[in-house]
Amino acid sequence: MYTQGLNVTDTGKPAAEDPAKLARFQVKVDAEDKIEPNDWMPEAYRRTLVRQISQHAHSEIIGMQPEGNWITRAPSLRRKAGLLAKVQDEAGHGLYLYAAAETLGISREDMVEQLIAGKAKYSSIFNYPTLSWADIGAIGWLVDGAAIMNQIPLCRCSFGPYARAMIRICKEESFHQRQGYEIMVTLSTGTPQQKAMAQDALNRWWWPSLMMFGPSDKESLHTADTMQWKIKRFSNDDLRQKFIDATVPQGHHLGLTFPDPELKRDETTGHWHTGEIDWSEFKRVLAGDGPCNRQRMKAKTEAHEDGAWVREAALAHARKRAERAAAARMAAE
Ligand code: FAQ
């Protein structure tokens, strides 16, 4: 279990924290000063950040799989180059995020082990299959669209390394969203078969995209704490509503129909209202029983095992370099 850097007692339980330190911490957060890794922070704040940032990193890494599925089958060289770059960006986002979490005292190896052991979560959305090329458009438009809506406020997160990592990530995600929407525009204005593919992708990705924002506010476990600590700036339901309001007109512009007979606009408030989300499906996917959970974890575990020699070689190389540098220093003395 991870304990490095924690204020723990002999029993392994977190020690009671100094109320004066807690109060100073909250004043700093309320003043919008960033909390940096060497600053004092409440144990629960550190744990929450490790949980959220590592889940976020795992999502980026597992999120490479559904799109990676189409790299060899992209319909043109231009589409293939774009998709390759997008998947590589996601690997980069995973790395920035693992690095941000490491500043809190946990190692990347431990985080990856937690993922492989099934102890750490990743976003529910990546447990759905990519059945046609249109799914690549729908992922960019809807999944990256939802990711940006959730992540722009994280650029103002109280924890400095996470906030700074999010700035670059959001710029890249915005580009991904446009790239995905452009695929949807091309398909929706193409042949009847292409338009049908775009509609089918929207039918399958709409509801899971709404679930990305997490449980409803009344079911959310962490929102109250994370909003007080200014990690989250908006609740799950508020962000979901912003996404719905931004996305429904985009879908109508494509000439597509949302798979929700209850979807309607409130003329007074201007908000779009959806039917009820199927939370039993969300819970099933989180419990490991979504359409692709097993496939995703199998691919991740195999990639990790296949990559063992690269990690060993990198360590051996680093050891040799250190030995050579030490020998050179001795010779110079
Ligand atoms: N999937 O109390 P809350 C992307 C869990 S990146 C799985 O509301 P919180 C880029 C939650 O962890 C997508 N689990 O939790 C891309 C908690 O469980 P725990 C990822 C979920 O943390 C695009 C429990 O339910 N983005 O897409 C989900 O306050 C295209 C109770 O929930 C981030 O990670 C879910 N959807 O709010 C890549 C953003 N929702 O930990 C490739 C950062 C909730 O107690 C291709 N994260 N849970 O065991 C966040 O903003 C928050 O963590 C939320 C959840 C909003 C996800």
Mean pLDDT: 95
Query: Taking Cα atoms only, what radius of gyration do you get, to the nearest Å?
Result: 22 Å
Low-confidence stretches: 1-10
Distance between the termini: 43 Å
Give the biggest sheet.
2 strands, antiparallel
Q: Identify every distinct bound molecule in the structure, by name, code or SMILES.
A: Phenylacetyl coenzyme A
- Percent of residues in β-strands: under 5%
Query: In which order are the strands of the major sheet placed?
Result: 1-2
Percent helix range: 55-70%
Structure keywords:
mainly alpha; 2 strands; disordered N terminus; binds Phenylacetyl coenzyme A; globular; 333 residues; 63% helix; two-stranded antiparallel sheet
Overview of the structural elements:
A hairpin with a 6-residue loop joins strand 1 and strand 2. The model is unreliable at 1-10 (pLDDT under 50). Strands 1-2 form a two-stranded antiparallel sheet. It has 13 helices and two strands. The chain is mainly alpha-helical and 333 residues long. The structure holds Phenylacetyl coenzyme A (FAQ). Phenylacetyl coenzyme A is lined by residues 51-52, 55-56, 59-60, 63, 90, 121, 123-124, 139, 143-144, 147, 150-151, 211-215, 220-223, 226, 236, 286.
